[in-house]
Amino acid sequence: MTTPRDDLLADARREVLVMSTSGPAARAPLGAVRPNDHVHLGRGVSYRILVPDTARTAPALSRRLGTLALAGASVRTLPTVPTDALVLDRSLVVLPADRAISSSGVLAFRLPGVVTTTVELFDRLWPAATPLIEGGHDEELDQRQARLLELLTTGHTDESAAAELGVSVRTVRRMVADIMRRLGARSRFQAGVKAADRGWLLAEVG
């Protein structure tokens, strides 16, 4: 059975950010896992999910999160996640609400201030969180992404990097945006620094 939350998720085209305070049980109406997540991942929607460390020792939840991670989602844990929230395409935020206010248990906001504040909170938490699966999708770039980072950090423009990789400039910019999201970077320079710190560049250069 679909919910208003699932209907909103169906509109996601590029990115879903998830913050869930739930540990052993995914609490309705916002939880760490939703029925249609695999469908969205299959059509290319980027997922980043933050959950408490207690999710690692909750058999059912950790299994479901692990399956999402293997399907392409980036899942990380923190000792404590401060709030429950979904952010869709950095343009809409879904927050839990008292059922006296909303019968569905959620409220959706497109106010730029609400969206910006929620995204900034997520981006502050993400770099300090620990990947659920070490060495998985969350931890490594594919060969083309690593080559792109190497080109950009050695002074190539988007246009020259696109020519080198044999892709369009639009594809390069989409790849850069995805890398920055995965690294929790606010700029291309910061993305290069963080990638070097993780050894992502050295593997290609060396």
Automatic annotation (TrEMBL):
It comes from the Bacteria. Coiled coil: none annotated. Residues 134-199 form the HTH luxR-type domain. PROSITE patterns: HTH_LUXR_2 (PS50043). InterPro entries: Sig_transdc_resp-reg_C-effctor, TrmB-like, Tscrpt_reg_LuxR_C, WH-like_DNA-bd_sf. This is Helix-turn-helix transcriptional regulator.
